[in-house]
Structures are given as structure tokens and as C-alpha cells.
Amino acid sequence: VHPNVSQGCQGGCATCSDYNGCLSCKPRLFFVLERIGMKQIGVCLSSCPSGYYGTRYPDINKCAKCKADCDTCFTRNFCTKCKSGFYLYSGKCLEKCPDGLEASNHTMECTSIVHCEASEWSPWSPCTKKGKTCGFKRGNEVRVREIIQHPSAKGNPCPATSESRKCVVQRKRCQKEGKGKKNREEKRKKINKDESKETRQESKGRAARRQNREQRENNNKMQPKKRKAPNKEQDLVPVDTAH
């Protein structure tokens, strides 16, 4: 062992020196050189820092630097995240996306252009005018459709979701169904109310008659019974006036 090399190191170093830091790492750790001013110091880490990718060799595991436009990478030629101002596409960082793709500022990737999609038109609605379907000759009818897929930034915009056109109907008078129905409802309520009133009155009358009858019966029970006066005509004895 070189006199400047020590084996009693800290921070995951297997061997180290006072001047260059770690010279080799313990198993499964990655060796990376960090620049401090004009000096490079070796450190041992469990994973490579941002801007580096790890490679494993039988004798040492190293962290190698990604390309300048990569923020993180899987290998030197395959980026997984780009630095600001670049868009990721197939492992590469581009300033401008290829034709047929658009840049997503949210993910900083080149994505496919999505165009708007709409459903089929619905059937035309009944011909109306001011919310009515009768009492006029010319009105309007409408039809609608729904948006199935909203477009991306460079996609084709969505079309109109409703259409209106003039329509002609056979002129007819509006039936006063609502008014007639309302009158029938009011009449039925009145009849029910009158019947209920008569029923209540009859019930009160029966109750009053029953109460009067019970009162008379009670009065009769409380009065003493009168003795029946003899019938004088029956007590008289006929007199024979023939003699």
C-alpha cells in the first residue's frame, strides 16, 4: 500500500488519500469524482447524482456524466429527463420537436398531436317558438352533439356543438289543456272539501243527538216513579135500578 493511501476511511471508501479523498469504494457503492474548484475529490455514493449514470464493472462501480443537455440519463446516449429548454423524444433532448409532434411544457416531452373529436348529430328537435309547439306557423328546430376528445395545443379545434334552422308547421290552436286540467283539479278539491265538510257536520249532528238522548235517559233515571192513580170508573159497582 502506498504511504499516502489509507484503508481506515470513512463515508463508504474502501481506500482513500488525504488529497484525493476516496480512491475505491466498498461493494455496491458507486465511485464519482466531484470537482471543488481546481481540485477533484473522489466520493462513494449508493446511487449516482443528477446528471450522472451508473456503470458496474467487476473491479469498480463508476458514475459517468450524462450529455450536456440531459438532466438524468440511463446511458450516455439515452436521456430520461432533459434540462430546461429541451424536450425529451426517444431518449434524446431536442430544442424543437419533429414534425407531427408538439412540445408539452408540462412534461417537457414531445407528444403526438391530438385533434378534436365530436359525436354524431342528434335528431332534430320539435319545431318550437318561444318555448311553444303550437299557435304559430314558423319556428326553429335544433340538434346537438357532444365532444368526445378535446384537442391538444396544436390539434384541430372543436366544431360547433349545436345547430338551429327555420321550420314550418301546420298552423293550429293551442289546446288549453293546462287551464282545463287546473280547473278540474280545483273543482275536485272543492268537491272533496264540501264532502268533508258535510261529513263533519253529519258526524257532529249524530254526536249531538246521541248526547241529548243519553242526557234524557239519565234525567229519567234520576226522577222518582209516580204511583198510578186508580181508575174510578172501573171501581164503581153497577146499581140495579129495576127494583
TrEMBL record:
PROSITE patterns: TSP1
Keyword DNA-binding among UniProt keywords: no
The entry's keywords: Disulfide bond, Glycoprotein, Heparin-binding, Repeat, Secreted, Sensory transduction, Signal, Wnt signaling pathway
InterPro entries tied to this protein: Furin_repeat, Growth_fac_rcpt_cys_sf, R-spondin, Rspo_Fu-CRD_dom, TSP1_rpt, TSP1_rpt_sf, TSP1_spondin_dom
UniProt-listed Pfam families: Furin-like_2, TSP1_spondin
Protein's UniProt keywords contain Transmembrane helix: no
Domain Spondin-like TSP1: 116-171
Gene3D superfamilies linked to this entry: Hormone Receptor, Insulin-like Growth Factor Receptor 1, Chain A, domain 2, Thrombospondin type-1 (TSP1) repeat
Domain of life: Eukaryota
Localisation per UniProt entry: Secreted
Annotated ranges, domain R-spondin Fu-CRD: 11-110
MF annotations from Gene Ontology: heparin binding; signaling receptor binding
Entry GO terms, CC: extracellular region
One example of a Gene Ontology biological process annotation: Wnt signaling pathway
Compositionally biased intervals (Basic and acidic residues): 175-219
Region ranges (Disordered): 174-243
Database matches in SUPFAM superfamilies: Growth factor receptor domain, TSP-1 type 1 repeat
Homology family: Belongs to the R-spondin family.
Function: Activator of the canonical Wnt signaling pathway by acting as a ligand for LGR4-6 receptors, which acts as a key regulator of angiogenesis. Upon binding to LGR4-6 (LGR4, LGR5 or LGR6), LGR4-6 associate with phosphorylated LRP6 and frizzled receptors that are activated by extracellular Wnt receptors, triggering the canonical Wnt signaling pathway to increase expression of target genes. Also regulates the canonical Wnt/beta-catenin-dependent pathway and non-canonical Wnt signaling by acting as an inhibitor of ZNRF3, an important regulator of the Wnt signaling pathway.
PANTHER family per UniProt: NEUROHYPOPHYSIAL HORMONES, N-TERMINAL DOMAIN CONTAINING PROTEIN, R-SPONDIN-3
Subunit-structure text: Interacts with the extracellular domain of FZD8 and LRP6. It however does not form a ternary complex with FZD8 and LRP6. Interacts with WNT1. Binds heparin. Interacts with LGR4, LGR5 and LGR6.
Protein name: R-spondin-3
Gene: Rspo3
